[in-house]
Amino acid sequence: xxxxxxxxxxxxxxxxxxxxxxxxxxxxxxxxxxxxxxxxxxxxxxxxxxxxxxxxxxxxxxxxxxxxxxxxxxxxxxxxxxxxxxxxxxx
Length: 91
What we know:
This protein is an alpha+beta fold. It has helices at 2-13, 61-88; strands at residues 16-20, 27-29, 33-35, 40-42, 47-49, 54-56.
């Protein structure tokens, strides 16, 4: 059973590291980590994001960077719009 899981994980994520996750009983590839919030192993684990409530890793790191960039850009735009509106306001 764990041998079959290891083969599936190897086919999906690449070279095996050789360590077995004690929670999932899967052989993890290099860079994989078990997320305590999602209760699963994530390939090339970066972190668990509280805003998206998802693990950031191999499959969604670029999307996460777009998410952060869009939010920062929106914050800058809104701040500029509010501040320029306040500058033209009569007191």
